[in-house]
Amino acid sequence: MRPTTALLSRSVWKGPHIVPLPIVRSKAGERVPPIKTQARSATILPNFVGLIFQVHNGKIYNDVRITEDMVGHKLGEFSAYVIPNRASRQLADEMASTRKRFAYKQTKNK
């Protein structure tokens, strides 16, 4: 396989990081089961388009449907392992709105 510009996130002489995954093509009207993998660093190849992967995020497997825009990226980019905490963001917004600006006051020297 010759490296293309979409797959060149590593040096040319190393080539893309490819993990051998069991790719099963479907026949007409047949549904293919998702491919479970923990290889978050695997590069998405053009022959993965249309397949569904279950990528492990450290706790569960997230479903990732591969599209043409994803070719050349890593599988782990589409399976977030940190969920943003909405409560802490709301707390930060409240703190910012109630924060008072410091004002210097003139004091008398004794």
TrEMBL record:
Write one Gene Ontology MF term. structural constituent of ribosome
Matching InterPro entries: Ribosomal_uS19, Ribosomal_uS19_SF
An example of a Pfam family matching this protein is Ribosomal_S19
Q: Name one GO biological process term.
A: translation
An annotated GO cellular component? mitochondrial small ribosomal subunit
Keywords for this protein: Ribonucleoprotein, Ribosomal protein
Does this entry carry the keyword Ribonucleoprotein? Answer: yes
Q: Which HAMAP family match?
A: Ribosomal_uS19 (MF_00531)
What name appears for this protein in its UniProt entry? 37S ribosomal protein S19, mitochondrial
Q: Which organism does this sequence originate in?
A: Friedmanniomyces endolithicus
User: Source organism lineage?
Assistant: Eukaryota, Fungi, Dikarya, Ascomycota, Pezizomycotina
